[in-house]
Amino acid sequence: MIPARGGLRSPYLALFRIRFTHSLQYRAAALAGFATQFAWGFMYILAFIAFYESNPHSFPMTLPQTVSYIWLQQAFMSFFFIWFYDNSIFSAVESGEIAYELARPMDLYARWFSQTSANRLAAGALRCLPLLVVAIVIPAPFRLVLPTEGTRILLFFASMFLAMGVVVSLTMLVYISAFSTINSMGTRIVVGVAADFLAGGYLPIPFFPDVLRFAVELSPFGAMQNMPLRIFSGHLYGEAMMQGLALQVFWLFALLLIGRILMKRALRRVVVQGG
Amino acid sequence: MIRLENISKTFRVRKRNAGFGRALRALFSREYEDIHALRDVSFAVNDGEMVGYIGPNGAGKSTTIKIMCGVLTPDGGACDINGRTPWKHRVAHVRDIGVVFGQRSQLWWDVPVIDSFELIRDIYKTPQAIYKRNLDELTDALELAEILKTPARSLSLGQRMRCEVVASLLHDPKILFLDEPTIGLDAVSKIAVRQFIKRLNAERGTTVLLTTHDMQDIEALTERIILIGKGQILLDGTLETLRQRANINASEMTDGNIATDAEAWVAALYKEYEI
Fold first, then answer.
1. Can you give the residue range of the structural domain that contains B238?
2. Closest chain B residue to A1, measured at CA
């Protein structure tokens, strides 16, 4: 635990801190996550190798680029995947506990944003290191090749946090939709599966058919894991990379704005379930 | 100063009769019923007053409290609490109020109670000195010293409820809303909570508005009572005037058997108003 120092701290940071430390408690979950993601990544790479062996030139990304895409995706999975929801938000809305959250001097949008980011960061912090270490030491073709230029690593981190911002601000829309559905499970699953597919969670976007790829690259889904993972492997560079980063910033602000407007409307019509 | 003028609130509730056939039919045509939770509710409460807000189940007590806390937005009417409209200036307004929703919990389930208190301190940006003073005073008055380090999930209902009361007072609120604060408490805890609320009102001049089904709470705590039924304010007066009014009617109804204890005369009032 970080010692309490008292004085005036931001309530959002305080909430972030308690959430983060709270999530760090789950060591068994982290270990299981590491094992699952390692096995999953390994399997994925095996499948890709089989395809590449049949014709290495018919693919839009080289094998090492694809391998690096998969390992980083698995390592930072909790930053990138829509389905990594904060279920306590859904249950607060569905059970009526939301009454207490609204009786606090906090902006509900910022509150949910900060607690859901804390969850994602804490889960990622525990899982990424062991996975990355293993991915760097295993032999080729499974090995994760690190970029040699420092700027690329820096841009990767910038793009990764932008991607997480876009992901969180999209999940905020799903949270807000819970106000107008009695049970949000359907929305959660449909949005999760569709968004994660379009974001390149199952197949990198460059592998999509041209028309779909073009549309997705301009959509918010293209501004998620697609950007940092391709920057890291060197598949995206130069002008295209800069355009991509600009698109990430654009979608982040656009989704934040849409979310805030929808939240404001939802709160006017909010119903507290269960009396 | 709390002032409500012609507050009204309607909820739309889906209705259907029991049975599989009816459930199928409801898939195609839905029947809604408008529930008038509040109709033209008006009253005023002065600073430092302690008011009991009573009425049968479903009368609109909790809805009124939630409107005064900024959680719900009414359909019509005006509400002014210390110069602010709760639902319009929610964040600024709730900084000055404390609220206990007896049926819900504001404590963090998995962490020791003291951690929840510190989070609440940070949310309200309460200066450490004031927080420390309030915490010491409150733990002493409600005998909580031994359970502060216990996670909320391991507490009994009575222990938890005392912690809930403390949690809503750490930031020195000027107004305290208590929605069934003694629900499920044993005799000892009830008396402790009552004595404490009384002291708070006497020593700090905190305005208290409480809803309860426990008439002993009302007798022990409040001078003034507001009676609500089917969303309308029916009576507003001192405990004595309500008692007399009930007695007159009770004597008419029960051949001169004058209702003496609070339960009986309140039941007589509910009967009189057919609520």
1. 47-96+174-244
2. B115
Asked if A103 and B72 come within 8 Å (Cβ–Cβ), the reply is no
Q: Does the residue A2 lie in any domain? A: no
CB contact under 8 A, A270 and B124: no
Among B30, B38, B71, B160, the residue to mutate for chain A (most A Cβ within 10 A) = B71
Q: Which residue of B has its CA nearest to A105?
A: B91
CATH number of B92's domain? 3.40.50.300
A39 located within any domain: yes
Cα of A275 to nearest chain B Cα, Å: 7
Q: Calculate how close chain A gets to B219, using CA atoms only, in Å.
A: 25
| pLDDT given at position B244 | 80
What pTM, to 2 d.p., does this model score? 0.88
Higher-confidence residue of B10 and B266: namely: B10
> What are A271's two structure tokens?
């119903």
Enclosing domain of residue A94: 10-268
Most A CBs within 10 Å: which of B16, B123, B176, as the mutation test of the A interface?
A: B123
Interface of A with B in 100-139 (CB under 8 A): 100, 102-107
In a domain, B160, yes or no: no
User: Is B119 part of any domain?
Assistant: no
In this prediction, residue B243 carries a pLDDT of 78
Residue A148 covered by a domain: yes
Specify the number of domains making up chain A.
Answer: 1
Share of chain B above pLDDT 90, in %: 49
Residue A57 maps to a domain: yes
With beta carbons under 8 A apart, name residues in chain B contacting A4: 118
By CB atoms closer than 10 A (0-12, 13-18, 19+), residue A153 is middle
Q: Is residue B22 included in any domain, yes or no? A: no
Nearest-5° angle of CA A14, CA A225, CA A145? 105
Distance between CA atoms of B194 and B217, rounded to whole angstroms? 7
Q: In this predicted complex, what is the ipTM?
A: 0.85
pLDDT in tens, A204-253: 999 999 999 999 999 999 999 999 999 999 999 999 999 999 999 999 99
Q: Looking at the 3D structure of chain B, how many domains does it have?
A: 1
The verdict on a CB contact (< 8 Å) between B92 and A271 is no
Q: What three-state secondary structure class fits B106?
A: coil
B67: its two tokens: 């409107």
The larger pLDDT score, comparing residue A8 to residue B184, is at B184
Based on the number of CB atoms within 10 Å of its own CB, is A143 exposed (0-12), middle (13-18) or buried (19 or more)?
Answer: middle
CA nearest neighbour of A106 among B84, B74, B90, B66 = B90
**pLDDT tens digit string along A35-50?**
999 999 999 999 999 9
Instruction: Answer whether residue B261 is part of any domain.
Output: no
Q: Does A269 reach chain B within 8 Å, measured CB to CB? A: yes
**Rounded distance, CA B4 to CA B124, Å?**
26
